[in-house]
Amino acid sequence: MTRTVLITGAGSGIGAACARRLAEDGVGLVLVGRRREALQQVAEQTGGLVLAGDAACPQTWNGFIEQVREHCGGLDALLACAGGHGLGSATQTSPATWEAALRSNLDSAFYSARACLPLLAERRGSIVLLGSIASLAAGPQVCGYTTAKHALLGLNRSLARDYGAQGVRVNCVCPGWVRTPMADEEMQLLMQHYAEDLDTAYARVTADVPLRRPALPEEIASLCRFLISDEASILTGTTLVADGGSSIVDVPTLAYTRLGGA
């Protein structure tokens, strides 16, 4: 029986990379996202069922799940890769911006998981939530994004606790900088301020990261592939940090690095 994996945010970035990686294994795909054209472009490379709609909308999932059961017969895994920005400090964040940050980063994961769980329980499947190092620490001027990504860890643990008895595993991947269109957009401020190109901007933000580089989407996709595989059959409720080592850096000692230390 062909395994079926549903990916939200499948039209670009890590979601699209997951689709391409899993297609190499012959996995049947369900590609979910708001931009039909982008999904269709991915589907031309990977095959799969395209479902265009907002993953953060609970009503959307009623029709989606019916189509998944009709076309695929069931579901083996959910990769919740949908996300978005949440820029600004608390006093700079408008109610609309706050709601959008929670909707794109947290609601999308919650409603997709809630909708898919009955199908996943039938096959003792698994879920991977896409977090961030913003799930672990706060960056500057990203209150909405940081709050939503922190909340994903609570969702991860709650789902793993409640549905483990049904054989459903739930884990979270927390990348650092990844070269995606969203991250490219965030580099624009540095590029403009320092009059530098995109590669130099990425080098700047990873200068204190032990591996000295951002991840590629394909690297994160490989970790997601591992977590939904039988090789990870004992893992649930875990947080897999994939940040090139940035979260292990003792920030108060960076001044000594500037003196030429390793």
Please describe what this structure looks like.
- The chain is of the alpha/beta class and about 260 residues long.
- The protein is about 45% helix and about 15% strand.
- The chain has helices at about 15-25, 35-45, 60-70, 95-120, 145-165, 180-195, 200-205, 215-225, 255, and strands at about 5-10, 30-35, 50, 75-80, 125-130, 170-175, 240.
- Strands 3-2-1-4-5-6-7 form a seven-stranded parallel beta sheet, with helices on both faces.
- Strand 2 (about 30-35), helix 2 and strand 3 form a beta-alpha-beta unit.
- The protein is globular, with a radius of gyration of 19 Å.
Quaternary form: single chain
Q: Taking all residues together, what is the mean pLDDT?
A: 94
Overall spatial form = globular
Q: What letter string, H or E per element, gives the SSE order?
A: EHEHEHEHEHEHHHEH
CATH topology of the largest domain: Rossmann fold
The share of residues in helices is 40-55%
DSSP helix count? 9
Main sheet properties: 7 strands, parallel
Between the first and last Cα atoms, what is the distance in angstroms?
51 Å
**What is the top-level CATH class of the largest domain?**
Alpha Beta
How would you write the strand order of the largest sheet?
3-2-1-4-5-6-7
User: Could you tell me the radius of gyration in angstroms?
Assistant: 19 Å
Q: How many strands appear in the DSSP assignment?
A: 7
Number of domains: 2
Please report which band the strand proportion falls in: under 5%, 5-15%, 15-25%, 25-35%, 35-45% or over 45%: 5-15%
CATH architecture of the largest domain: 3-Layer(aba) Sandwich
Unreliable spans are none
The CATH homologous superfamily of the largest domain is called NAD(P)-binding Rossmann-like Domain
